[in-house]
Request: fold
Amino acid sequence: MSEKIIPYHKPIDINFKLKNLHGYLSNFTYVSELEMRIQQLYDVENVIACSSGSIGLLITLQAFRELYDIKTAYTPSFAWFSTKWALEMTNLFFQFRDIEKTTWNFISTEWSDEELILPLHCFGNICEIDASFVIYDGAHALGSKIKEFGLATIMSLAPTKLITACEGGLILTNDDDLAGKVRLLRDKVSRMSELNAIWGLETLKHLDEILEWKRKLYNYYKKHLKGQFQEIPYNSNYATIGFLTDLKTPPEIEFKKYYFPLKLGLTNTNYVYGKIVCLPSWWGVDYEYITNRILEYNEVIK
Reply:
């Protein structure tokens, strides 16, 4: 067996000189610049940078509760733990719903005007929900083409994301009332540091290169590995490249299953979780070696 070890994730190498800070260490010049760049990228009215995507979701839900008398929420079971945690922290009654077997996104249906829908753009794969109250979990979605932001869309800048600020989050909204309340909460409990914003701005410069790299890897893996890859009905940044397969994975390469179901027993969620393998797809990874090693390993263990 080869001794080569390939990690699941490795951040993009960036060399830059630390910029001068102007007296304030959070919510100042570089945080504002990062917000402006994302605002221009998505042509959205308000972008609020915060300390993490998880806290960004929490304060958005809290602001939503202050504005709207909605007590019930629906969200997919195939999602990160912070979704469940944020809903619990804001005392919203919520129920989990199943995902589609092909896109791994939320199964949509007709919703009442008294429900909050909290769908996930799974691995950057954009979904669109037709409902009165929608807040999108777009943790992986920075770089995807988004037309519908709902009341708000929350993105993550955590270390494993396509664009990272080492840690941080972004709240995008066209609702000025919601934005005002979110900013008040952000300033009290979730400020982004200037250092995080500087790193975020530097990685953002490479967005087009990273998107092209991700598309290339998705197409290469899909062509050469046997399994069901995520179906993309609208657009995706391919932030996480996974497929449903019975292939075995060689131990010297790190793979992930990613989302452990937040609720067991949902048919499609259980099926996807049982078969999914998420592949290393970071900038510069030796994807040809990974592909050949998977095929070789499965030939050996037949």
